[in-house]
Structures are given as structure tokens and as C-alpha cells.
Amino acid sequence: MAKAVISSTGLHTPPYAISNQELVDAFNQYVDIQNDRHKAAIEAGEREPLVYSSCDFIYKASGIESRYVVDKEGLLDPTRMRPRIRQRSDDEPSLMAEIAMDAGRQALDAAGRSPEDVDMLLVACSNPQRAYPAVSIELQHHLGLRGFAFDMNVACASAAFGIQTAYDAIRSGTARSVLMVNPEICTGHLNYMNRDCHFIFGDACTAMLIEADDRAPDGGLFEVLGTRTVTQFSNNIRNNFGYLNPAEDPVRDEFDQLFKQQGRKVFKEVTPLVSQLVVGHIEDLGINVPDIKRLWLHQANINMNKLIAKKVYGRDARDAELPSAIHEYGNTSSASPVIVFHLNSGDLQAGDVGVLCGFGAGYSAGSVVVRRL
Ligand code: COA
Q1: How many domains does the chain fold into?
Q2: For residue range 126-183, what is the model confidence (pLDDT) as tens digits?
Q3: Average pLDDT over residues 304-328
Q4: Which one-letter DSSP state was computed for residue 114?
Q5: What is the DSSP letter of 252?
Q6: Rounded to the nearest whole angstrom, what is the distance from the C-alpha of residue 222 to the centroid of ligand 1?
Q7: Does residue 234 form part of some domain?
Q8: Per-residue pLDDT at 97
Q9: d(CA 34, CA 92)
Q10: Is 111 contained in some domain?
Q11: Lining residues, ligand 1, CB within 6 Å
Q12: pLDDT tens figures, 215-225
């Protein structure tokens, strides 16, 4: 049976950065406009006034300082409060395919591979841009890949599930070279009028080339030692957007077609789910926890990640063991553990073992244990 190895990764970072201060200024202007508009109702006690957001809260509660986005102007317009994305014709590459092309080409170039080398393409992300044709098949066309492609969605855990799918395909012989891409335009489904969550997401796209070891250049960068996934139903992170919305009677509120969460409950429930998944997986692979050199975790909340790492190691993690990108990128859903892997894996020594872990809505979580070659 072939071994599955990671040959390379790629990262597309959108062109615009938004600081907490810019986001909070726009939100607070929105609050002023709304409170002024509803002044009479507020004074009559019929309506609660909206309350300002704060940079201090955002940084302390999440660790986020900034995020990259595909559009800045629409987001920061207090009379709009959502990104402005130009509608493209059916003959143009979709925005999602466009950012995926950049990340995918980076991964191919980094491994010195040409498109014909790839025989399976996965777009694994929280929100494919449309129902069909699959974004992955569009991307396959634009990149000039052969073989087959499909989209898969396991929310923020999509990349971990995607790596598992690639690993299984390589080991079973279904594919020899798999490009997995995670385009996330999270700003499109974030409610910028909701103080509880307006700050959490950013946009990005990552790519990973996973291949049979005898195919990978120089045998690959990391061997995938094993993958493990788990799901457990919860409504605490939910998005009711879907193809039945236009048919629903009564028509669903537009805010109910955006991301919503019970952040505190998610924090409490997902932290043990993830730490138990990772520890059980490591132990079942016969690896000692102290031998884990690095955790590349989903970037939803810095405090949550510190707690997960503490539960895994049985002590506070050292900075080098728990790299972070949340301060700069925010939460980029499935792309986020691959971003930290992309930015913080080159320094590991041959034989070093690390764990990439994605987790989120569903709940869903996936652990991928890798060894530096
Ligand atoms: N600015 C200022 N204050 C705010 C605020 C904002 N933008 N948003 C909320 N607050 C206030 C709340 O009103 C509340 O005030 P109260 O104590 O007077 O009631 C207080 O801050 C705490 O709010 P809470 O929502 O409980 O904050 P939190 O500490 O749980 O942090 C998250 C919120 C979202 C950062 C945090 O819960 C989180 O990251 N959870 C994990 C989410 C996750 O992993 N999701 C996966 C998605 S892919």
C-alpha cells in the first residue's frame, strides 16, 4: 500500500486587510445610525438601543487583531455592512475558483509539479459558491488538471476531512496525486450588524498537494501517519441558508441565512471534543504525547487553542508548539489550520511529529498526524 505524503502547500491571501479599529468604527457608526433612526421607539421603551463594539473586547475574547478580505469598502460602509462582490457572468471564472487557482498553482509550483500530474482535485470548504457545476470541476478546468474533482463541505473541519479523503484515496489506489484546496470567503456569510460575531471571520484560500510517496518530489515533505474524524450534532453554530429558502413559507429572515453561533457554548463543548480526539489519535498511533512537536489548530479563538493544547500536553504549550495566525488572519474556517501549517512547518527536523486539526460546525473535527521526512 502506498504511503501518503504532503508534497507542498499554497496560500492565497486577499489584498485588503481590516484592523479591529476600522471594523469597530464602522460598526459603531452603524449603531449610531440605527439608534438615531429608532430614537422614538427607544425612548418609548419599545426597542433596545444597539450597543457599541470594542477593540479591547475583540482582542481579549478572541486574539484577533486583523483579517484579510476580498472586499473592504462594502464591509466598512455603515449603510451596507456586507462585502460588495461584483456579479460575474457564467463565462468568467467564479471568485472562489479564482482564489483557489492562485493557492492551487502555488502548491503545484512549490512541488515542481505540472497540472497533468494531478489525478484528483478536492475543493473542501464551508461554503461552495454555488450548488453546481461544482467549484472543484470549474477549478479543474481552469488549472488544466486531468482525472476527477468534487466539492465537499464539513464546515471548518473541511480541510482535515479533505486530507483524510486524499489519504484514503492514495492508500486505496484511487488516486496518486491529490490537490486539496480550501477557498473560504467567510465574509460573505458573516452578519456585520451582529456585535457578538461581526469580528470573527476573514477570507483566504489554502491548497495542499498530497501524493503517493513514490510519486512525490524527493519523497515528499511530511508523511501522513494517520487521520481520524468525529462528528456530533449541535445547533450552536448554524447557517440556514440553502436552496429551499425561496420556497419556504413564511420567508426566512435574511439574518437567519447568515452565520450564527452560541460562542460560549461552542467554546465549552468543542474544547474537550477536540483535545480527546487528538490525544486518543496520537496514543492509538503509538506516539507519546511529549513527542508531538507542533499543533496546527483551527484558528477560531486563541484562548480556546491554548486550552486545547494544555489538555493535550498536560501543561501550557510553548509558543513553538502552538503557532498562531489568528491575530493576522482571523478565523478563515477550513483554511485556517492549513495557514498555520503553511507558515510554520518548514523549520521542523526530519522525524518530528505534529498534528493538524480542524474543527467547527456540525460539530465536526478532524485530526491529521504527520511526520517530517
Ligand atoms: N464588543 C464589546 N462587548 C461585546 C462584544 C463586542 N463586539 N460582543 C459581545 N460583547 C459582550 C457581551 O454582550 C457580553 O456582555 P455581558 O457579560 O455584559 O453579557 C460579554 O461581552 C461576553 O460575551 P460572550 O459572547 O459571552 O463572549 P465570549 O467571551 O464567549 O467571546 C467569542 C465570544 C465568539 C469570541 C467566543 O465565544 C468564541 O470564540 N467561542 C468559540 C467559537 C468557535 O470556536 N466557533 C467556531 C466557529 S467556526
Answers
A1: 1
A2: 999 999 999 999 999 999 999 999 999 999 999 999 999 999 999 999 999 999 999 9
A3: 98
A4: -
A5: P
A6: 37
A7: yes
A8: 98
A9: 38
A10: no
A11: 53-54, 57-58, 61-62, 156, 195-196, 237, 261, 263-264, 266-267, 270, 300-301, 304, 331, 360
A12: 888 888 999 99
- For residue 361, being part of any structural domain is answered with yes
DSSP string computed for 312-338: HHSSPPPGGGS---HHHH-B-TTHHHH
Atom of ligand 1 nearest to the CA of 195: 7
Separation of alpha carbons 3 and 223, rounded Å: 7
Cell, residue 195: 456585535
Query: Which residues, 6+ apart, have CB-to-CB distance to 240 below 8 Å?
Result: 252, 256, 257
Residue 325: give the domain boundaries: 225-372
Q: Are 212 and 6 in contact (CB under 8 A)?
A: no
Map grid coordinates 468534487 to a residue: 150
Please indicate, yes or no, if residue 53 is contained in any of the structural domains: no
Residue 269, domain CATH: 3.40.47.10
**How far does the centroid of ligand 1 lie from the alpha carbon of residue 243, in Å?**
30
| 55 is annotated as an active-site residue | no
The answer to whether the pTM exceeds 0.90 is yes
Chain position carrying cell 496520537: 282
